[in-house]
Specification:
Elements lengths: L1 H6 L15 H13 L16 H15 L4 H12 L14 H31 L12
Length: 139
């Protein structure tokens, strides 16, 4: 068990590329690689993923930044190749509006249902004049 714990550290992503000479370009690179999802690992950014395709994507992001592309152009290029899935924070669109609105709608719907249930229970209690059978509880 200890061997597994110590060996698990070797699975971390290692970015072997040299940092940009310009700190602004390096900051852009870090932001973009943390915004893009690894297409193989699914819940890791390409910055954190140890798989080969993530290394290829990191290399491509580096090349596109060096060639002068903006962050938005790089995002659009990646989305055109891999779909909206590659973005950790998907864009607002009519296609995914229900996904964004569903939690709020469910909360409102649950609140309305809860309010109606409580209102009906209260009405049942005020309409019920039958006395409690005290002997039934002692049997």
């Amino acid at each position: 068990m200890l061997a597994c714990l110590f060996l698990s550290g070797s699975c971390a992503a290692i970015d072997t590329s040299e940092p940009f000479a310009d700190p602004k370009l390096q900051a852009r690179y870090l932001v973009l690689t943390h915004e893009l999802r690894c297409v193989q690992c699914q819940n890791e950014s390409i910055a954190d993923s140890p798989v080969e395709i993530a290394a290829d994507l990191r290399r491509e992001v580096r090349e596109k930044i060096s060639s002068g592309m903006s962050n938005q152009q790089i995002r659009e290029l990646m989305v055109s190749r891999y779909g909206e899935y590659i973005l950790f924070k998907p864009r607002w669109s009519a296609r995914n509006a229900l996904l964004w609105l569903a939690p709020g709608l469910m909360l409102i719907g649950g609140g309305i249902v809860g309010w109606r249930v409580l209102r009906r229970r209260r009405a049942l209690l005020t309409d019920d004049d039958t006395p409690l059978d005290e002997d039934a509880g002692q049997r």
